[in-house]
Amino acid sequence: MDFFVQNWMLFAVAAASGALLLWPTLGKGGGADGVSPTEAVQLMNREKAVVVDVCSPEEYAAGHVTAAKNVPLDELEAKLPGVVKNKGLPLVLVCASGIRSRRAVAVAKKLGYEKAYNLSGGMGAWRAANLPVQKS
C-alpha cells in the first residue's frame, strides 16, 4: 500500500496517458472524418461517393467493398489523382481495421479532396454490418 501512496503521481500519469490513447477509439469513428458502414452506403447511393481501398493488393483480393478501387496507402499520394479525378466527389477510404484509412484521409485532404471519409472499423465493421463483400 505504501508503494501506491508514494507513487500516486506515476499512476495518475499512466491513467491519463491510457485515457488519451483510448479517446480516438471511443469517439465517433476515431475522428471527425469517420463514417459508419451505413453512412458510407448512404454517401455511395446519394452522393456517388467513390470507395478507395488502401489495403495491399493481397488483402484487397481477399475481400473488399463492391466497386472499390484499390490504391495501396504507400502509393496513394501518387496514384489517387489519376484514379479519382473529380475532387468534388466524396471519398470513402477503407482498410482492414480503419487505421490505415484514417491516415489516408489526411493524404487525400492534402491532395485537395475535402470530402474524404474514413470507414470506421474498416472491413471488419463492413462485414459485421452484413454488407456485400466482393472477392477478386
Question: Overview of this structure, please?
Answer:
It contains seven helices and seven strands. It is α/β, with parallel strands linked by helices. Strands 1-6-5-2-4 form a five-stranded parallel sheet. A two-stranded antiparallel sheet has the order 3-7. Strand 5, helix 6 (99-110) and strand 6 (116-119) form a beta-alpha-beta unit. The longest helix has 19 residues, at 8-26. The N and C termini lie far apart (59 Å).
Question: Main traits of this protein?
Answer:
single chain; 7 helices; elongated; alpha/beta; two-stranded antiparallel sheet; 5-stranded parallel beta sheet; 136 residues
Strand order of the largest sheet: 1-6-5-2-4
Q: Strand count, sense and closure of the main sheet?
A: 5 strands, parallel
The dominant shape is elongated
Span of the ends, CA to CA = 59 Å
Number of strands: 7
